[in-house]
Amino acid sequence: MPEQLLTLDTALTDEAVLSTYRRMFAALARDSGAVVDDPALVDIAETLFAAFAEAGEEWLTHEQMRFACRAHPTDQFDNRLRVLKGLGAIREVFPKPNQLRYRASFTSVVGLMFIRRMMDDGGQSEMHRLLALEDLNVADPRTTMDEARQSAANLARAFRLWALELITLTTGTIEELREQAPKLWGTEEIAHRAQSLHGTILTRWPELDRSCTDLRAAIYSYSDASRRAAGRLADSAGMTRNLTLLPTEAWRTFAQTASKERLAAVLDGFVFDAPAPWHDPAAIARAVDEAPRPTPAQPTPPRSALPDPGPGDSLDSSPTAAVERLTELAETLLGPSSRVALADVLGPDWPSARRLLADLTTVDLRPELPYRLAWSGDLTIDPAREPAWLSHGYLERTR
Question: Considering only CA atoms, which of 223, 240, 224, 229 is closest in space to residue 181?
């Protein structure tokens, strides 16, 4: 596969992927170098899991796994496969010696799906799922007060940490705030679901008023921080007119409800120019070499206006004339025998031998003539004669 050119946007995207993985597994890492530092290693894992899903109950051998990851270098594949085996993400189908087929761990696949969702929206979807599950748990009659207290404490800790991160974004650089902008979408719905969960806990267990107070304070702190960060982001988007800072729904609603003047004002001051074409010099040189070249017209040679009674006027051009001439030539060379060696009938000079070979080749190619040429694999070389090399062949009469 051709390598893509490394650009600043590509480097920033790769670094965002790696930073998400580092934060996700920081609590489980043995040291700071325990997480991958190359996005291609993550792609190898995802490619392997996709290949295992398509293989089904046939599973995969080492050769099949290498074929699925053929776009990656061998050393990267071997290193990643060794790590995945060591951590249990890829295991033998049956724990027995000389096992040739492997299977993928369901836990690792779900973990990658979870991380991809975290990268897409900064954790909003996971927070919605967490709140929905906690709401079901606290409403379950089998849930105890200790479990509800622990749930409230975990949510309060999560909302406080989230609020502190949003406060840091509000007071930090605008570039960092734009990078973390997905964390600000849907904050009102998250706060509303958290308050509903808080009400359920406080209604069922009034004794947990202290824990519910901490949860309520964390929710309010999160709501205030998210509004401040969203306000600063909206002000920045309004000044820079960066069309990528608002969600798709907001721009769709604006396009459907705004007047023509307001729509035109959005792009006021922008100049749209066609991007300059960029071509690989090697591709240009190859295209020039492969381009068809017109054949120059050759001028007709001058001809004399005087009559030329040459041999062409006396040449017999009838259809049977060529067959008769070739038959006469073959019969002359064969005589009474049915086979004759070409070395015995060729002339002493190369021009006459060349003409004779041309005529005999024509005889061999005509199916209506009862003659053929038979060649052997022998080759005679004699520098003193012309031609200096001679293949052994025979003219034979077939009938």
Answer: 229
Cβ atoms of 37 and 69 within 8 Å: the answer is no
Taking only the tens of pLDDT, the chain with its 399 residues reads 344 445 555 555 566 666 666 665 665 555 555 666 666 777 788 888 888 888 877 788 888 888 888 888 888 888 888 888 877 778 887 777 777 788 887 777 777 776 666 666 556 667 777 777 788 888 888 888 888 888 888 888 888 887 887 787 777 777 677 766 766 767 788 888 888 888 888 888 888 888 888 888 888 888 888 888 878 777 766 554 455 555 566 667 777 888 888 777 776 766 656 556 677 777 778 877 777 777 666 676 666 565 655 555 555 666 678 888 888 888 888 888 888 888 888 777 777 888 888 888 888 888 888 888 888 877 778 777 766 777 788 888 887
Question: Is-contact 394 374, C-beta < 8 A?
Answer: yes
**What CA dihedral angle connects 66, 70, 74 and 76, to 10 degrees?**
-90
**Residue 48 burial (CB count, 10 A):** 24
Q: In 219-370, where do the E strands start and end?
A: 339-341
Strands 90-92 and 101-104: what pairing? antiparallel
CA angle 294, 299, 301 (to 5 degrees): 145
Tokens coding 257: 């409800």
- Distance of alpha carbon 352 from the chain centroid: 63
**Are 125 and 117 contacting, i.e. CB atoms less than 8 angstroms apart?**
yes
Contacts 24+ apart (CB under 8 A), 319-327: 323/366, 323/368, 323/369, 326/359, 326/362, 326/363, 326/366, 326/369, 327/369
Distance CA 337, CA 363 (A): 17
- Other Cβ atoms within 10 Å of 223 Cβ, number: 20
The secondary element (H helix, E strand) that includes residue 378 is strand 371-381
- Give the helix/strand (H/E) hosting 108: helix 106-121
- Which residues in 342-368 are b (16+ Cβ under 10 Å) and which e? beeebeeeeeebeebeebbeebbeeee
Please give the model's pTM, rounded to 2 decimal places: 0.43
- DSSP 8-state assignment for residue 297: P
Q: Can you read off the two tokens belonging to residue 115?
A: 């991380």
Cα–Cα distance list, 278 to 6, 274, 286 (Å)? 15, 12, 15
